[in-house]
Protein 1
Amino acid sequence: MEEIQADVGFARVGSEPISFWSFAARALWGTVLSSLMALVIAVPLAIGIALFISHYAPRRLAQFLGYVIDLLAAIPSIIYGMWGMSTLEPMLRPIFSWIEVTFRPWLVRLAGEEVQVDGDAVWQGGLPGFNYAAEHWDWWPITPDLVDMSAGPARNLAMGSVILAIMILPIITALCREVFIQTPRLQEEAAMALGATRWEMITMTVLPMGRSGMVSAAMLGLGRALGETMALLMVLSAGLEINFKIFGVGQHSTIASQIALRWPEASAGTPDNPSLEQPFLIALGLLLFVLTFVVNFIARAIVNRRKDFSGANA
């Protein structure tokens, strides 16, 4: 691994060279964190929209919304990236600023903050235990830096996660809608005949029977988010840190965006003077493939497990 440090000039954090596994861990952290945040945002919205289309909206409105959802799923990711830079970033900046102003005082009370005393940086305030973790552990999430936006525009992981959520929302919505429509009409009418409200009927029949389908839709959206390249490459100020500073600029990046960013300058070398730059990035791509395979494997296991206990088999 020391040989990789010497031969791959761009495998650095700041001016310090790092090994392949250290580089991969940092890129993997940004990939997984952004994808999970996008999933948390997108799945509840997608399920709500799918339920509205399938069980609440009038027929014509439901058809129109279905066409719009299918159209959004076909938009290329670079369009989302351009839209994110030009439109979404100015919209999110005041929201993120409000989050910083609102929550930073509470985080300071909980974890303390770094202040200058006689020219030395000293950590002061906070509750016992929380202030020690915030001062000594860089990965500890409960610090005032969690909501710090002083470095510049809102081109951070939080914005990237919002972009990813918007991108995977049509896919999850379309699949959930098709799953909800498959609920047997007789079971829905039986629940309504017993005096259930429409929402009670949905919670008793539609959601239990569509549970495996919702898991499949969420995992498909997660797979799309893990491999996303251009949108995050355009909206993120890339960094290679392992922390929870999702509102900070230059903190995180993803495997796919690192490959796209560094491949043009990567050298394959010559037979007499081989270079590890391109093999380095190819290995990152293999790691992303393995991650996607593991996610799909887990999703298949969850779906098969849920399928045996779903209402469809009652």
Note: The longest strand covers residues 113-117.
Protein 2
Amino acid sequence: MSGSNPYQGSFGSQMTGQATYGTSAAPTTAAPVGDLIKDTTTATFARDVLEASRQQPVLVDFWAPWCGPCKQLTPIIEKVVTEAAGRVKLVKMNIDDHPSIAGQLGIQSIPAVIAFSGGRPIDGFMGAVPESQIREFIDKVAGPVVDDHKAEIEAALGDAKALFDSGDLENAGGLYSAVLQADPENATALAGLANCLIAMGQTAEARQVLSDLPEAMAADAAVAAVSKKLDQIEEARKLGDPQALEQALATNPDDHEARMKLAKIRNVEGDRTAAADHLLAIMKRDRTFDDDGARRELLAFFDVWGAMDPATLAARRKLSSILFS
């Protein structure tokens, strides 16, 4: 965007709520390696593995000093567990010194890695497998990594939409703006901010927000819909006095040009039902008017309103009855 977000320093300055999303936060501190990787014995196995696995998955590496593949596996699995930053723990058991647990589990070949969760074994593998397979194994037993940043953005967008729907335009705009600071190419936030500006009557500012966008953002459905909405608003401003148009229709209900203009005006005023009904009335009377222009205009309204908007759904039903009756 040419001006990035021209309101990121001012939009929402009068807010009574909080819109601090995207501010710097202290990084999450990974658990110390000593808490993630340890040796265990027969005596401490219940505490180190069974009890600990009720909190998070625990991988038990059964090994022996004479085992060559064990020596290959150890640095790899320790590296992956450390990088997993607490999603799993690793407990190592020397089966030469402590053979009973391995015997109870039926382990006959090492290295063998058994994953415990909820106090019981749930999965495992044998041999010095590649690092990629160890990562896949951890994802399997601990679940895939959650992108907290993405989840926070999605939550903020949901909050912003709820604020917008409730009419709290200042706080909605502030939250959309904050998301854009954290993710400048977030098309949903951009469209949301533009819609807030439009609802506040700041159409010039909304147009500026949508100027010089990267191709991918400009092609986004939500952004394209807001751009069409601005076009419709600008066109409606040039269509004359709605009261005069109403009077013209009262005199001549077949004045399709006046009815088309009035539909466009009612649309930007927010009276979607009236806007659709005017266009549907033209279609009922004369599909040839403006080369079926009423239908094209109605479809353009749908693009802006959204496929699941109640006005869209209602108008589509009426449109179908006209087209297929």
Note: The first strand starts at residue 37 and ends at 39.
Protein 3
Amino acid sequence: MDWDDARIFLAVYRGGTLRAAASLLHIDQATVGRRLRALEASLDARLFLHTPRGYVPTRAGELALPAAEAMERAADQLERLTQGTDERVSGTVRVTTSETIARSFMIPAIQRVHTAHPDLRVVLSTSTQLSNMTRREADIAVRNVRPDNPDLISRRLGRLDVGLYASKRYLKDHGIPQRGTALEGHSVIIYQRALFASRSEALCGEPYGNARVALEVNSGFMMLETAMRGIGIAELSSYVADPVPQLVRVWPDCSELYDLWLVMHGDLHRTARVRAVADAIVDVFEALPEKAATARPKKG
């Protein structure tokens, strides 16, 4: 099995279908199927069973997984080490973060990069899920969780806050909730539990056990939009909610702080194109008012 074959195998293993594997590899589905059949023929082994639920690895497929992942790690390390010496500010940099952070902070940073380095292309992905940076799913991530992987380096961009927000119409109809009542008599909007199973059953420290969960969403934009429409009370970052005239901050003195981290792989952080994007992100945060971000680090 060579590395090209290993890439096909890993994509099918992780995606579970030929279509998902093709999407991961950016090739067509027929090519994935043809190359998988050729790989199985060359190994004289069946690696997957095709079932109604998708492609399920056989015993041989399970045994092949560690070796294929070792090849992937070696290929990724080779790419990172060689790119780490590249001083050209051109090429592609992959950035991942959440939708709301992208709108408020990443897009202004990308505008700076585009002005200064027109030959540099940024691929921006937005998701609530954490990308695997060791597999080159992203070169830069902006997260509210500091990674503990020793291969990654992180820099704190600033400290932001979240509060409780509701629309003016909602508060006119339902009134301000009383503290200590677990939001009794009110409706709340929360993130889908499947996405954030570890989150506490509280919003800004106030339990919501007595509230009606009106809606569960999977993105910050949907949280903002539904709160604006008066569906319920939502926990939102102040940088997103404060500029919206339809929203009112419930209990203005109640907030929770969280740190935002810039994360890069240790092998890539000195690459010129990655450094250019990282510096632009840091510049955007350094320009924020003190209220929006505190203890901002200097570039380095």
Note: The domain at 159-256 is CATH 3.40.190.10 (D-Maltodextrin-Binding Protein; domain 2).
